[in-house]
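[User] At your convenience, examine this fold.
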Amino acid sequence: MRKITKGLLLGAVAMASGAYYSLACTGISLTAADGSYVQARTIEWAKGELKSEYVIIPRGEKLQSYTPTGANGLRFVARYGVVGLAVVEREFIAEGINEEGLSAGLFFFPRYGSYEAYDAAKDSTTLADLQVVQWMLTQCATIDDVKRAVQSVNIVALEPSSVVHWRIGEPSGRQVVMEIVGGEINFYENTIGVLTNAPGFEWHLANMNNYVNLRPGSAANYALGDVTLEPLGGSSALLGLPGDFTPPSRFVRAAFFCGSAPQRATGHDTVLECLHILNNFDVPIAAENPDEKSLPSATQWTSAIDLSNRCVYYKTAYNNTIRCIDLRTIDFATVNYQSHPLDRVRQQPIERVTVG
């Protein structure tokens, strides 16, 4: 484990937690006709550059969790190789997958989630919330493995305002949401396949009933006395679909877009479908932070993970070219633990069209 001082660690965490109200992460999932299962998401931050890296963890790597007092928490050894997309520090994997096909990601959950209080006497079993994904993917092969394993750890916040909830999926298409409220761990089967931020997952499901009238396509004409009301354009049956970037509105919008999306033939095609859907959730920088002048978008990166075919795809605000890391090409018994920036060069390639 790298040497990181308590001051540097807490400074990094404070930087991340200070952006909670600038975060608008949206997660979706789709299944291809050939059975391939894809989980995709955006990650936003509107207060400057979010340090983001892809991380490779080999089998057998010795790891340790941070605690609010330093690098002195739970020690664990990677049972499975992992590819993850990390923020702030390479230990803080926000989205990833292991060689068994288990995938997990964190979504910020301010005000509604609450962990148990940190107790220094429990340092040997203490797991930082921002390292839960790293731990899950290196230790577990299935959702049921996760459910059993979390009973043996004490999940705490590295910084008091730091609260997240988690999405966990299997190649079978099963997905659960894990939330901690009042120190109690709760799992919810997520058959709708969507996740955003606060409030809690069950609240979002109940809120969907407020949009029972919405449908894909066009609304029928309607006679109102002597006046016939006619649609002004396409998709009129979705009139009233919320278009803002709050978590409840994004949840509803994502659920309708996924529910009406055509089923694609393969995992590759489904990844592209997910990325097209998530284009609708790109947050313009000025919509969140008008004072920020350098970022091209508040949506700093978007990922899609094909759990069935063990591939991680991503694109960034600086380069919309889709890049892919194929776990099947990695020897997790010999590869080194490493991390690299998502963008080696921050430049959008543009293909010049030559006209003869």
Q: What stands out?
A: The radius of gyration is 21 Å.
